[in-house]
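Suppose you are handed only two things: the residues of a chain and a line of SMILES describing copper (II) ion. What would the bound structure be? This form records exactly that question and the answer produced for it, so the two can be stored side by side and reused later without any lookup.

QUESTION INPUTS
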Amino acid sequence: MKRLTLLTLLLVAALLLAACGGGGDGGNGGAEAVSLTFEGNDSLQFNPATASAAAGAEVTVTLNNSGALEHSWVLVPDTADVVTVTEADAVAGATTGVVAGGQSGTVTFTAPAAGTYKYVCAVPGHAAGGMVGTLTVQ
Ligand SMILES: [Cu+2]
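ANSWER OUTPUT
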C-alpha cells in the first residue's frame, strides 16, 4: 500500500513536470512578439498615430524618418507632459534616440503593464507641434 502511494506521487510529479516543460515553449508567457513601424515627418506627425501591443510582449519599434529634421520615438506614461519629455523619461527603455533625417532607428523593449501610453518625439518643439501618438497596451 505504501509502495503504491509512492508510485502514484512520482507519477503525478512527472506529469506536472511535463506540463511545465510544455508551457515553456512560448518563451515569454504567451505574449506574441510584435514589430511596429512608424514614419516620422517634418509635418511633425507620426504615421500611424495609434498602435497597440500586448503586455509583456517583446516589441520592436522602427522609426523611419522621412523628413530632413531630426526625430525620435520615445514611449512615456499617458500622464506625461509631452512638451517637456526627454529620452530619460522613456518607459521600459523604449526610445529610438535621435534619428537623423532620412535615417531609421530601432529599439526593442518589453511592453509595460496594460494601459495607455504616449509616444512622442523628444526633439524640442516637436511634441508641442503635434508629434505625439498613442500606444495601447492590452
Ligand atoms: Cu520630431
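WHAT STANDS OUT: The pocket of copper (II) ion is lined by residues 40, 71, 121, 123, 126, 131 (CB under 6 Å). Confidence is low (pLDDT under 50) at residues 6-27.
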